[in-house]
Amino acid sequence: MAKHQLKGRKKPLTSRDLIEVKDLVKYFPIYSRGVLLKKQVGIVHAVDNIDFNIKRKETFGLVGESGCGKTTTARLILNLIDPTSGEVFFDGENIFEKFQSANKEEKLKLRRKMQLIFQNPYGSLDPRMTVFDIISEPFIIHKHIPKSQWKEKVYELLELVGLEEYHAERYPHEFSGGQRQRICIARALAVEPEFLIADEPVSSLDVSIRAQILNLLGELQERVGLTYLYISHDLSSVRQISHRVAVMYLGEIVELADTDELFKEPLHPYTTALVQAVPIPDPKAKSMKIILPGEVPSPINPPSGCRFHPRCPQAKPICREKKPELLLAKPKHTVACHLDS
Amino acid sequence: MTETTLNIEGLKTYFFTEAGIVKAVDGISFNLKKGESLGLVGESGSGKTVTALSVLRIVPKPGRIIDGKVEFNGDDLFKKTEKEMRRIRGSEIAIIFQDPSSSLNPVYNVETQLRDVIIAHQNIPKKEARKKLIELLETVELPDAETRMREYPHQFSGGMKQRVAIARALALEPTLLFADEPTTNLDVTIQAQVLDLLNDLKKRFGMSLVMITHDMGIIAKMTTRVVVLYAGRVCEIAKTYDLFERPRHPYTEALLAAVPRLDRRKTLRVIPGNIPNLIEPPTGCRFHPRCNYATQTCKEDIPVLEEIEPEHFVACHEWRNISLKGERSH
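Predict the joint structure of the above. Result:
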């Protein structure tokens, strides 16, 4: 168990949450064509005023349909793009301020604490590098491991993600999709991060391989004490791996609760429809009742009031006019909907 | 009702690549009754799609149908001339694909490409074809069909494109429809809409449906009988209900145990190892390297598909000696 010792992890565990996201907003401007007379003609409301916290050693699921702002949220938290407004705290530090002011060394230190794995392990590995080079590349950048220990450390990481030592000399094309995702995970863990964002990590994998990666992520959390932000449109895998889940719709969080509660007693009509839309692998299971009409509207001109109202089977006049706030409906269960109030 | 629409026997389709011969479909047999919804389930490389393409005789190069027989309403499709096949494709057997954006032509608007299908096969005047087309697009619930059909595929969302693709497949009122992962690229709420539409249309047109998917949820919801494929061979054929309740092939059991479900949390059981390479597939039973129950016989002999109960077929040497768990007992 304790083979993978992480240095610098011995900080006293406070009750403070690892990640705090406050009023985070990201708008993408759209410009008209032309060079001289370029003017802004619209705004994509990619992420609109979202708040959430992620506790230490927790898996926080972020679920929603395509275009709802899940990935933009991930990129904002890592400060890969600048926010329009809002704040993100990592372990109490405002990361946007930190990234703007800090010197290069401190930025690197902060980067080491958070890592990302992507949906497509084929696209995120350099085909001309061996696995050893891929996994040891972070050592060159972060200089946290002396060169004499690289080999040992790479083998340790390979073992950790369920690969063998001899795999180190091979190239990415020699591996299957699931194994490549393991390599990506090993590379992310090479810098000994505390926080890992997994953006649709199993979506491109076959069903029998998905379970392997989901179980691996769970195991790693126990062994290394990682905190995850798990992003997916696949509700079943979110349910399987997450402790708490936030449901996003058109850039906003509409509901946030503990996983079991959210899926058993969803309060928001969108969550209800989403849950019922997933076919359950059991012919005896009750089939869906509500089929949501229409499609997700464009985030350029999102609907007024509650953004879900044009598709909502229970919409009332107030839903069109007033934006519902994300409020506590039950202990540890927040929802943004007028219906319950 | 028990008329057989499609009968596939010993189908073999190989791909002759530079790296070697890929045995994508290696002796697959099953049949489809009239009006039935049959599921074809398996992981990538199991031969689901190639089976459908072989039935339509549209296997891309370097693939070739090597052996086997496909009977459609009693006629041997492999004995038809290319001209006869062209008539059958579309008007008798149609197919919709996973990715509607690559199966629609981007340079023609929807009206033109769908109208051409109707005119080519039915030889009716343009005006009449147009009228028929509007009706058809309304059947697949494309909103505002008359205006929107003048738009190009890129102006439609994924779900709408799939509706257009379904409309094109149904334009000639086929009696058999292959749906090859029709909702894999779509969001869940849109997937629910499209599945619902397919169910409706199937009833309305009295079609037989072959649902090709890797999603056990869709199988449970959409089909009455299932063929489980692994590495180009059939593992098990059973009624959907029986398959989930009492799988008899270790692969089926493992597949069910590996899929998370939304209505309750369960421990995911992992299938060890990877999907085999089909240039040099494992000897004997192709699942044996990943199977918990494998014996020496499994390594050496190819298991044959035998009927162990009425309408329950399994290809496993060990089925008598093992007791497997279904979805409900987890």
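Confidence is low (pLDDT under 50) at residues 1-13 of chain A.
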